[in-house]
# Entry
Amino acid sequence: TAPLQVSQGDDLTLEPPLTPGDHKKIDAIEWLVFDPAQRSEALKQSNAVIRGFLAARKFSAARQVFQKIPRDSVEIIHREWHAVADKDVPLPAGTDNAIREHICVQAYLSAQSTFSDWFKHFHNKPHEYEPANQASTFASVSLSDLVAEEHRQKKQEEELGRWREVLEGLCFAALDKIYNVLLFPEGGWLVDVREDTEDNEENRCRHHQMSLLRRLYVPSLCDLLLNVLLNTGGRNDQCSKLADVIADEDNKLYELFTKQEGKRILERIQDAMVDIL
Amino acid sequence: LKVFLKHHPKLAWMHQVKSGDYLEACDTLKHIADQEKDSAMNKKNYLSLGKLAAVFSDNDKETIRRKTEVIDHEQMLLKYQETLPSSVYETLTASLDCAPVYSPTKLIELYIGDLNQHANEVDFKKAFELLDYITGDSSENTRMTELDEWKLYIWCRAILKDNWQDVDTSSDPFESCSHTVLFKTLKLAYDTDTLPDIMPEVNSLLGRSELEELGKDPKFEFLMRASFERVQRMMVPSTA
# Structure
C-alpha cells in the first residue's frame, strides 16, 4: 500500500479527480467478492484501498469501493468461518477488526455526505425579498402592479421559508451522523477493539494509516459540526456540548488535535458562547 | 479590565482564551465549575472547557497533567451521576439535563437507596467506588470512621435486597446463594480486586440496626459469619 498523502482543502466538498489507477483499484475489489470464502480478504483489501482514498479526500471513490462489498458480507464471513471452526471459536482478531473498520468507514462516509448535502443547500439560498422599485411607492402605480409586487414578495418569502426548513432538516441529519463518528462506541472511530497479535509490515502500516486518518478527520469533523451549528440559526448554545465530547476520557478525542487545531476549536466554541451572553 | 473581570469569572475565561492565557482560563473555569451547584450539565461543560484550555496550552506536559488530573477526578464523579439508572431519574421526576449537582453521599443514596428498587451488584460496586469522593472537612481519623459507617451501611443495603428466611445452611452458600445481590456483589468486588478495601468487619455488620430482625435468626447469622470468613480467607493469597 502506498504511504498516505494527507491533504486538506478549503472547499469542503471539493474532491480531486480520479486517475486511471484509482479506477483500477476500485474495479479490482469486484474480483474478490465472487467467492464467499474470500469475503474476509475482500473486506480487508477494500478497507485498505478506502484508507488510501480517504487520505486523498477522494470520497466518491471511497464510496464506490464501499458499495462493492455486499451488504450481507458480515453474515457470510461468520458463516464461512464457522464452516471451518467450532461454534464458540470467535472470529480471528484481524477479521473482527476489519468488520469494525468497515462500519467505521460507513459512519464516516455518511457523515461526510450529510454534511455535503447541508453545505450545498446552505450555499443555495434563495434571494431575500427586495422591493422592486422604491420610487414606485410614491409615484402612482396601477393596482395590478401592486398586486403583482405583493405576489412576488409572498412567493419569495415562501421560498425562503422552505429553504430554511430543509436546512434545519439537513442540519439535524448532519449533526446526528457527525456525532455518530465522534462518539463511536468502544474506544472510538477507527480504533481496533481486539488486539491483532500478528506483527507484520501490513498491520503496522494499517495502524499507522488509521491513526493518521483519525488525526485528520476527527478535528475536521469537529470543525464541520461547528460550521453546521453556527450557520443554521440559533444553535450557538449547542456548540459548548462539543467541548464535552472532545474532553471526554472515554474516547480521548483531544489527543487527536494539534495545539493549533485545539486552540482554534476552543476559540470557535468560546466565540459561539459570547454570542449568546 | 482584568480587575473588572476578576469579579465576573464567566466573562473572564473567555477573555483569557482570547488573549492566549490558557492556563489562567483553565483555573477560572475550574473555579466556576466548583461554584456550580444548580446544573450538573453546566458543571460538566465548565470542566470540559477548562480541561481543553489546559490540554491545548503551550505549557509543559507535567503542568498540563497536574491541571487535568484534578478535572478528570471531578468529571468521573459526574459520570457516576450521568450513569444513574434511568428509573431513578424517573422517580426523582428529574432528567439528567436539568439535574442539580449531587454530592457523593447523595449519589450513593440514589444508587442503593429506596429510590433504586432494582439495584444490582454493579450499582453496589459503584456505591463503594463513590466512597473515594467523600472528602469530609474533618480530620483523617473521623473521615475513616465515617467511611467505615458508609461501608457497613452499603453492605446492609446489599443484604436487605434479598429475603434470607429460608436459607439452606447445609449446602454451600456460594452455590445456593449465588443469585443474591450480596453474593453477586462479593463476587464482582473479588473479581475486580476491590474487595480488600471494602471488606466489612462481621461483628460490626451484624450489630447494625438495619439487620436487627434478620440477626435474630441463628441460621442467618451463621451464614453471614461463615461466608465472610471464607471470603476473608480467599482474599489472603490475593492480597499477599
In short: The mean pLDDT of chain B is 87.
